[in-house]
Input
Amino acid sequence: MGSAFVALADLELNRTIEQVLKLEDPNSLEDDMGVIVLNLSLAVKQEDIKRNRWSSRKKRTSSKSSFMRSVRLSDSLRKNQLWNGLVTITLLEGKDIPGGGLAEIFILLKLGDQRYKSKTLCKSANPQWREQFDFHYFSDRKDMLDIEVWRKDNKKHEELLGTCQVDITALPTKQTNCLELPLEKHPGSLLMLIAVAPCTGVSISDLCVCPLGDPSERQQISQRYCIKNSFQDIKDIGFLQVKVLKAVDLLAADFAGKSDPFCVLELGNDSLQTHTVYKNLNPEWNKVFTFPIKDIHDVLEVTVFDEDGDKPPDFLGKVAIPLLSIRNGKQSCYTLKNKDLERASKGVIYLELDVLFNPVKASIRTFKPREKRFTEENRKFSKKILSRNVDRVKKITMAIWNTIQFLRSCFLWESTVKSVIAFVVFVVTVWSMELYMLPLALLVLFAYNFSLIKTGKVNNTQDAQELMGLDEDEDEDDKESEKKGLIDRIHMVQEVIIAVQSILEEIASFGERIKNTFNWTVPFLSVLACMVLAAATVILYFIPLRYIVLIWGINKFTKKLRNPYAIDNNELLDFLSRVPSDVQKVQHAELKPYSSSSPIRKKRSAL
Output
């Protein structure tokens, strides 16, 4: 609320006086922060004189630093957020893990407040993970990498099997270090690769000194991501600049009808935040943030919170912006959404975004595994999510069923014209079918859907908008389910339901991603798919299938011989993981500010 200080030289010895101190806050827009009334008495303490002088000096310095703390808040906040390195850890395998043959094994990795959890493997004393994790590295911190080996039995009981530590500061930089780490006080060891590399492109600055505002610096950054540099530093895909300008008409979170808002920007596992503007519903931050892009299919999430002292901050609103949807250099007004990113919240935020990236590097990265997210809290059962996932699976199942019924109707000659056409197409296709025609047919499907979108006959956001029609009664049922979930008697049932919920979500997302690939939901991915299909058409036309299968088999069989530490992946599934599902399309869709069709206005008009 404010601060004040007292000059001890103005006090009289051994006399109590009353003083009225005016509170001040450099970051507040209000002139009158109130006063505080104190009864002060100055006396000599009967102790060592040297210690007394030192204590007085320390208290006076502490008072002044406390008074100036808010003035230097932005600078200290900026320094504490900016990482200058990246620690890449490849978890390969475990050797002679105690009890590994009796239970499932997983690994927890911790570096400061960053946490990762590996996948859980089947019962084995020598498990192989082959997973990669990226940690932020702060050179001014002396954090140790803590590694814990855990096992989990069929009763969901978890037990710590062993630990080990790695001093990251002692490792040489710009090279990959292969380490076999023995577990402390337990038999067994872990084999992993650790690489420490410098990281650039992370910054927080004012509007007057933004990186892309300088023409020479902008040209230098653009040159770094031009086509001729496509195979230099293949992991450096692009550069993102975010200008966080202001927010308008935010939700009042305090009793006085005000809020203390600040913004958190998240891109994958990268996170930066603004300073807090106190007691304001229309804050202006005017800050510039830059991020290195590791995957062009990442989504920038900007969340507005209300600072609440020592308590967790209150949520005010959120917006999600896919990098490929950014309009460079254009100031945009985004309507804030709720935590689920499905309904409009109160207030808007003004951002100006610029993204520069190399399309060749981005295309190569598309066919590699996505970056793992830091460990989050366990998911809770939600009737709304379960119902939505069931509807999504039902919709895909009905599409497949309708296709089967159409073929069946052709076989039964329910319509003579339709059956004759289907019979002719079948005979011609089977008689003249060559393998190269398969990717060619998929290219035709891409072209057909693209023509429908361009002519306005099909809107690829229609399916996503249908998912927004969820009843508020289901939200109340979610709260009741959370209370019931605390009862031990149905704990196991709840875990089964959560597993079914997740499986349904994966199935629905997989089908929707395939559909959205052909529907040109993300033009970059659809163009990339067309290029791959065109290349496959040419290759299959000139090269016999048996040679292609032989090359594929040799590559698969010799992959581990050529690179013992290679990480297994499926390029097709990695590609589809970048395509948004219908739920993600809703979450990433931009809401029109003050639109008459917004959910809030619909609800008010209904009342």
Summary: DSSP finds 15 helices and 19 strands in the chain. Confidence is low (pLDDT under 50) at residues 46-73, 599-607.
